[in-house]
Design brief:
single chain; 247 residues; alpha/beta; Rossmann fold; eight-stranded mixed β-sheet; binds S-adenosylmethionine
Length: 247
């Protein structure tokens, strides 16, 4: 077994000891993943275990009952969406926003897992945007949204997620996204990015700039130094939990 898979196996065992209610999801290895490990007779991707760990840091601090809707910007293939589904039986709606080529691949991947209803761009566009009624069918609904449809979101969210993607964007793009986050999100932000207390290297937009844009709506910040940071240490990323005044 390669080191990454062994590491994931150990991390998963530790996670299951803490959250015995977690159940494996089918489909995280779809598309021919080679990093598979076994969990209760189901093949799961070792890469997904890293996302489960990140999400564990959040649900260790926030009651899953308070999180029914999630907005994520730059989710990539959507492994974090699958991790939230595995952790949170109360989850109803996820909106993922990414650039088009990634969004298309992620849409096909998420559909292939069969874990949720996946609504693609064409369906959202012909419905004129995202309205509460679209996602109200009893199972988790994942909306796959291109960036230009953000003004057409007409629902509120309990949680905003961003992991390692804003550093790929310019300041005007970030500012526009955060304007929508401040408009739509009422509860929490869970961020994995550079440390706002440390100046960024090179051309990356400093995390403290993003912190400033979120500060008015999400004044309370906790920097998380246990959990994911301990297991999957990346020197340049720290998880942060921000809470709105009302959360
Ligand atoms: C390093 S990956 C991180 C993916 C995922 N969040 C994770 O932690 O594994 C960066 C992500 O940001 C997305 N991204 C880059 N520029 C973007 C933009 N302007 N709008 C939305 N997503 C963007 C990329 O397509 C990619 O999915």
């Amino acid at each position: 077994m390669k080191a990454t898979r062994m590491h994931a196996r150990l991390a998963l065992d530790r996670l299951l000891a803490e959250f015995p209610q977690l159940v494996p999801l089918e489909g995280t290895v779809n598309g021919g993943a080679e990093d598979l490990i076994e969990w209760d007779g189901i093949a799961v991707s070792a890469h997904w275990v890293e996302h489960l760990w990140r999400v564990a840091d959040f649900y260790r601090r926030v009651d899953s009952k308070t999180v029914k809707s999630v907005l994520e910007i730059g989710p990539g293939l959507g492994f974090s969406t699958l991790a939230h589904i595995a952790f949170n039986p109360h989850l109803k709606t996820v909106v993922n926003v990414d650039i088009v080529p990634v969004l298309y691949l992620a849409t096909q991947f998420l559909k292939s897992t069969g874990c949720a209803r996946v609504v693609d761009y064409r369906e959202i566009h012909s419905a004129g945007g995202i309205k509460q009624s679209l996602g109200d069918n009893g199972q988790v609904t994942i909306f796959q949204l291109p960036p230009w449809e953000m003004p057409n979101i007409d629902i509120e969210f309990d949680l905003f997620l961003n992991a390692a993607s804003m550093q790929e964007m310019t300041e005007p793009i970030i500012e526009n996204y955060i304007r929508h986050v401040n408009r739509l999100v009422r509860g929490y932000c869970f961020l994995l990015m550079g440390d706002p207390d440390i100046p960024a290297d090179g051309d990356a937009v400093p995390a403290r700039y993003i912190r400033e844009l979120l500060k008015t709506h999400f004044p309370h910040r906790t920097k998380i130094t246990d959990g994911w940071s301990e297991i999957y240490e990346r020197s340049s990323y720290v998880p942060q939990l921000l809470c709105s005044g009302s959360a």
